Amino acid sequence: xxxxxxxxxxxxxxxxxxxxxxxxxxxxxxxxxxxxxxxxxxxxxxxxxxxxxxxxxxxxxxxxxxxxxxx
Length: 71
Prior knowledge:
The protein is of the alpha+beta class. It is built from 3 helices and 2 strands, in the order αβαβα. It has a two-stranded parallel sheet with strand order 1-2.
């Protein structure tokens, strides 16, 4: 989930997804953003995201994060 999107930021989009009914609300959501401070990570998790990856993307960390959702 991009945090800085036009019209609706990633935090608000995540909150809306988490309010959906059924399995749709359970989809894994990972923040992907240049905002890499600890508060940014906390805000992502507080909004209902399952993880946080900062840019520039480290492929190894990305793969580890994604793998955790498919085990």
